[in-house]
Amino acid sequence: MRRPAVRLCDGCGQMFDDVQPEGGQAPWIDAHAYLMKYGLHWDDLDRVDDACPPCARLFQASAHHPPADGKETLTS
Of 22, 51, 71, 73, which sits 20 to 30 A from 15 (CA to CA)? Predict the structure, then answer.
């Protein structure tokens, strides 16, 4: 049986645990810890690409600043 989609951070690879969050908040946790916590394998999951708050801030900051070498890069 497949579980609902799980948010996976594109930057650091952590997963968003909103199933049984600790401390009352849904935290981003290590993907291996998530799989072990729920007894799952990668094949059991539908993953949704996302970004945890620290990686989202990094992605946003890097999008506003050109590379240090001054060369523009294209991303798709």
Answer: 73
